[in-house]
Amino acid sequence: MAADLHRYFFALIPADQLARQMVQEAVRLDPGAKHQRADRVHATIGITDDFPSARPEVAAALLRVGAGVAADPFACQFDRIMAQPGHMALRLSRRSRPMGDLFRQIETGMRRAGQKLREGYRHDPHITLSYRGGLACNRLVPGYRWLVDELVLIHSHVGETRHDILGRWPLTGAGGPQLSLF
Question: Mind listing the UniProt keywords for this protein, alphabetically (predicted)?
């Protein structure tokens, strides 16, 4: 049996119905793949390295980082399916400045809290939909748009298909919703 691994990450999570629609799109495009469960659909916005055991001190530091985030709600639209051998993901066809700003807040907060982002991690918003061995593809799809109004901290028990939500913070910055044009 493989050793248990633990990782912590900040995420944006779409509403349940939208997550189910995203997974249905992946099933339609690649029925033989191992698809993500709808309750695990998310866009990672900052992630730690893996640890051989749970790290309560890391979780506590990251909870403080999440509590310090100040951002307005913003609209995002994942409207491009990109697949390569290994996985299929939804991506943004246009950059999201508010999402980039949120990432930079998290990155700065983690550094100040003595926590580092995963080695080699860079801000590249995507939602993994399936794990596969098929051919590469890159195409526009009808967009999956939602108003991002919450940041979540997740403790992932790697290999167990288990995500524990450690913290949730509403995005309630003083400027009101940023409904950007695409």
Answer: Ligase
